[in-house]
Every structure is written in structure tokens, then in C-alpha cells.
Design brief:
This protein is mainly α. It has a domain of 93 residues. The protein contains five helices and no strands. It is elongated and about 85 Å long.
């Protein structure tokens, strides 16, 4: 054990000044990084904001084009995923008393699938269904296959820009 008479630091005040300077520098770096993160997040939200309404319009237009019932059901199921609704009814989760401690009960896929990557993947699937249907020829330009493909390309470009290093 070190006794207080043998421990004689040179200058505590200089040490604290350096720590304060380091702390302020680190705080400034956090502020700059947080600002960049917030800007990127806001831009991504703007890109995906009209997404759900557009998908619903695409599915509605797809329904009235005279395609098969199965194709319409597939498009509706994808639209439900994009909107965050459950595609099929799932049995209620086990109560806390019934939990047996296994990891199998903990491993569940998110029902909502509302991450930006999932939204883009589901939108791409919807575009594929629409693209394969020769009867799908909407009057609105934003609902055409070419416009949908262009939107997917733009979103993919922006998704690359949104990736944080």
C-alpha cells in the first residue's frame, strides 16, 4: 500500500485541465457526428415518406387491370408487409408462466419488417409482380413499371449514401 507521504503528484491542476480539454474535444466530435447522422436520417425519412401510399396505389391499379386472383393476393400480401400489417394471423405468444427457458421461443422474425432495407426488398418484390403482368398498364405515370424501376434505382443510390462508415 502506498502511503500518502510517498505519493506526491506534480500538478493535479494541469492534469485536470488536459482532461477538460480532451473532454470538450470529444464532445465536439460527438456533436459533429450526431449532426451528420441526424441529417442522413432525415433525408432517408423524406425518401421513404410517400412510399406506403405509392405501394397502395400500385396494388389498387394492379387489381383493376384484370390479372389473376393469386397475383392480386401476392401483391396485397407484399403491400401489407410494406404497410406493417400482419400477413396472416399468428397464435398468441406464450405467457411468462409458460416460458420454458429455451432459446427457440426467443428466436422470432420481426412481423413488421419496417426497416429501410426490408421496405426496399418488399417494394422490389412488388415491382417484380407488376412487371411480370402484361395487362398492367396504368394511366398514371408514377405507377408505370418504368417509373417504379426508376424509383428503385434512385432509392438504391441514396441507400448507399445513407450508409454510415
Amino acid at each position: 500500500m502506498i502511503q500518502s507521504s510517498t505519493l506526491q503528484p506534480k500538478n493535479h491542476i494541469e492534469c485536470f485541465k488536459q482532461l477538460k480539454k480532451f473532454g470538450r474535444s470529444a464532445l465536439n466530435e460527438v456533436i459533429v457526428a450526431n449532426t451528420a447522422y441526424q441529417r442522413t436520417t432525415n433525408e432517408r425519412e423524406v425518401v421513404f415518406e410517400p412510399f406506403k401510399r405509392l405501394c397502395t396505389r400500385i396494388v389498387s391499379s394492379f387489381e383493376i387491370c384484370g390479372t389473376t386472383k393469386q397475383a392480386v393476393q401476392d401483391a396485397r400480401a407484399i403491400n401489407k408487409k410494406i404497410r406493417g400489417n400482419k400477413v396472416k394471423v399468428i397464435a398468441p405468444a406464450a405467457s411468462a408462466q409458460e416460458y420454458d427457458g429455451t432459446d427457440e421461443q426467443m428466436k422470432k422474425i420481426s412481423q413488421a419488417q419496417q426497416g429501410y432495407d426490408n421496405l426496399l426488398a418488399n417494394f422490389t418484390r412488388l415491382a417484380e409482380i407488376v412487371r411480370k403482368e402484361p395487362l398492367y398498364k396504368p394511366n398514371e405515370t408514377e405507377l408505370t413499371v418504368e417509373s417504379i424501376d426508376g424509383l428503385i434505382g434512385q432509392i438504391k443510390e441514396k441507400m448507399v449514401m445513407f450508409r454510415m462508415p
